[in-house]
Design goal:
Elements: E1 2-8, H1 14-23, E2 27-30, H2 37-46, E3 51-55, H3 64-76, E4 82-87, H4 90-100, H5 112-129, E5 132-135, H6 141-152, E6 161-169, E7 180-183, H7 204-210, H8 214-237, E8 241-248, H9 254-266, E9 273-279
Parallel strand pairs: 1-3, 1-4, 2-3, 4-5, 6-8, 6-9, 7-8
Helix pairs in contact: 2-3, 4-5, 8-9
Length: about 280
């Protein structure tokens, strides 16, 4: 029996994750009333189902402390479970709520930001005790599916830290949620080379132009050395998301090329962390 409790921040993708797990053969039930949780576990453990998901979240009409107590009672009765916690940055959650035009369940005064702050405070202990924490701030839908499949279908080792490498252009604003920012404007700008001006760092011609300079290789080696030191320590500290910003003027040439190179250097299936990449301003 594999019993998975899915919880986390509203807007972080809990329902999406549950639908994905359902597609993977899990029987999913969402937001049972508190008095039914232990009884549900009893019935499930007596049934022939071997893969079950119970979704829980913060609601204005019931205490989350009562939910956690019910889960504790469940475990004390011998009904074990794993907990998956979905998280996302405040900026990402605000953007998602704005796009969906939905109200946050804890936004009593209508301010989504206040609701997010209240919810994060309520869920702080739950996040610390979760078996798996996935930050969806920079994950594509397919990347979330792959991560869930690795953990709950293939039973592969859980990668507790997700490293996101993002190129950007300073003229469009600095990357707001970056943990580390590297400025690569010291390299020659392909924008001023006529045949490269309308290409991007995803094109081989731009890559070849930039990587002919020793400075580019020295920079990559120094960044790689720094990350080789930092990442294991971030994992030890319990960090779940590391955002690395690579910036140039417009976010199309130098930053894209160098971000791609760092991604290639870090992207290894044998590592104990996952790596994603995106180019924020490549289309601007």
């Amino acid at each position: 029996m594999r019993f998975v409790v899915v919880t986390g921040m509203s807007g972080a993708g809990k329902l999406t994750a549950q639908k994905m797990l359902e597609d993977m053969g899990y029987y999913c039930v969402d937001n049972l009333p508190v008095p039914f949780i232990v009884k549900f576990a009893e019935l499930i453990y007596e049934s022939e189902r071997d893969k079950v998901v119970l979704g829980i979240d913060v609601r204005a009409d019931q205490s989350f402390d009562e939910i956690m107590q019910a889960l504790k009672d469940m475990k004390e009765k011998g009904y074990s479970y794993e907990m998956l916690f979905l998280d996302a940055s405040k900026q990402t959650l605000l953007k998602r709520y704005k796009e969906s035009r939905r109200n946050h369940p804890l936004a009593m005064d209508g301010r989504v930001e206040d609701g997010i702050d209240r919810e994060r405070k309520i869920l702080a202990k739950t996040k610390k005790s979760a078996d798996y924490v996935i930050d969806t701030s920079h994950l594509l839908t397919r990347e979330l599916r792959e991560e869930l499949e690795n953990i709950f279908v293939k039973n592969e080792n859980y990668k507790s830290l997700m490293v996101n490498i993002s190129s950007f252009g300073f003229k469009h604003g600095i990357l707001q949620d970056a943990d580390l920012v590297f400025d690569v404007r010291f390299l020659p700008n392909p924008y001023y080379v006529e045949e490269l001006k309308h290409k991007t760092g995803n094109d081989k011609e731009v890559q070849d132009f930039l990587m002919q300079f020793d400075e580019a290789h020295i920079f990559l080696n120094k960044v790689k050395d720094l990350l080789d030191f930092l990442i294991p320590n971030y994992i030890k500290e319990g960090k779940n998301q590391l955002v690395i910003g690579i910036g140039c003027t417009g976010g199309k040439h130098r930053s894209v090329t160098l971000a791609n190179e760092i991604y290639k250097a870090l992207n290894d299936d044998d590592k104990e962390y996952g790596v994603t990449i995106n180019h924020r301003d490549i289309g601007n």
